[in-house]
Fold each of these.
Amino acid sequence: MVATQTFRAPEYAYDPLRRRIQFIDSVNTVTKRYYLDGNQVVDERDAGANRQRYYVWGNYIDELLMFNDDADDDSDYVVCHDQLYSAQALLAKTDGSIAERYDYDAYGKPMIYTATGAGGWWDGNETSAAASAKDLPYLFTGREFDPLDGAALKLQYSRARYYSFNLRRWLQRDSIGYVDGMSLYEYVKSRPTQSLDPSGLLKSYCGCTNAEKKILKADALRAKQSIEILLGDIERAIAADIGEYPAFTGMKLSRAKSILECATGKLDSLGSKCEQTGGQCGAATNAWVNWIFATRIHICPKYFSPSRSPSNRSRTLIHEATHACGTFDGKRSPDFGTIIGWHDNAYTYGWWVDNHFCIPGYDCPE
Ligand SMILES: [Zn+2]
């Protein structure tokens, strides 16, 4: 007699940008169709295109803030996560009660607790399950957890590659080559408690050290105080009927005012991420943002260089924050008076931090 068993592999589908748009688990007969906003899944539907879940994301690419596990509004959950953006607990939005909690081993294998123990949560006796009863898919580092084969096999979808919690390595070679080291399968240089790899291509550190965070906090506060002073200067100029900067026709102070007001808001809402030199952090770069699409200011090592003064650092933050409000780079536009004026120039706003309300080369020394 021969026992037969049918093995069925999961099926995936990707769009032309190689983003995953469909996942079929034929063992559990689950089909998930993903609707994306950029690189984030915002809506998840079944094979019949009925909405199953939708997601609300924060600043970081894998920072899940909230999700709803069906189409109505009464089953919203708030996700608490740690510094790696790994989900730690799920809170019911209605009363803040804990719905589920999660733990991980160092390499991210999730332990999922679906009900409290006799002594409450964190008593060590919680009910564990192979998969989230609330169907939260975003667990370790905020990446997608795929329980396959009745959750006997646990994989993580990290965009370019799949990661195995059991093998503690990637299942595919790194498609960008030896950038992270000589092993094409090694996960974040074997530093899984301090590093992230949201793209599946390149490891990144999880933000800033405590010392760096302290500096950034003080710098952001100083930047906001500088903006307040500058706004006062502008208000006074406007009140004195200097609606346009003398000699520069069409350069409205009201525009400068709105840019600075926007930048203050950005300094509150933009997260900061400390990075290593590489990519857009060249040796000469202090910081960078994804222009008006910025969700965070990327802080490069040079930012913390001891030769830079605190006001110099604040100047960088204001410069980057105004980029997030739509300003361009460059010292002065060649056509100063026509298309791109000083008020659309991130350099000028940064300049004002050290040199007060003036235009470099016009009423301030260059
Ligand atoms: Zn710039």
Amino acid sequence: MFTFDLKKLNFNNFINLLIISILKKKGRYQITIITTKKPFEEVLTTLKDVKNIAIVSCASCAAMCQTGGTEGAKEMMEKLESEGFNITTVIVPEEVCDNRVMKKDARKIEEELQHTDAILTLSCGLGVASITEVLSNKFPLIPVFVGTNTEFMGMTERIGRFYMRCQGCGDCILNETGGICPITTCAKALMNGPCGGMVDGMCEVGNYEKDCGWVLIYERLKQLGRLDLFSKLREPRNWSESGHQREVIWR
Ligand code: SF4
Ligand code: SF4
């Protein structure tokens, strides 16, 4: 049963739920960023110096990961209230990571934010960055905390089974590796075939519970008749081009 405190729940939650339900029915709802819940004790430690909290819970990726969305917000609100916190407002924006969405939704809760000590977001790290940026002019002193851990960009098998298959390195070599990423499937992100820790096709990292990424790549290239690519010598990765404050701006 839907038991949100309607005084705290912004109206756009209902619109968001409707949109998501339509997208799900049309099979157009996709997960991108996988999150998991932080231990509640860690959240409490983070919030130890504040009393009045606004909850911003993402209706997209986090909702599908069951860390955010309406259910996640409701669960967090009830837990925090039972610990004596005052929840000033709860909103469930369609995509917290989208500055345009957050600007629109933040305008609707400006009055509540006047009495808010901190925002707790149930989203990925992008959501925290988005809220912080959107509120930086009008509410620069409100800290934005996060109640989740951002794990990875996820390939979805089905809800509840997500896999990291790409780390967005910015210099993709899938064309040479049969579509299997050595940076994510090899525990050491090696570029030139299996290391000495491979035994019977399994990886030493994690105690031989996972397939060796380079064995997977070998098998796939063999299947494709492209073992010439397997023996190609690749230069060590230049990580300096992948790391610091990357951005994509095309207009
Ligand atoms: S090489 Fe791997 S990590 Fe880099 S972009 Fe391609 S799939 Fe992603
Ligand atoms: S055993 Fe395979 S997956 Fe594991 S670190 Fe070595 S090359 Fe990478």
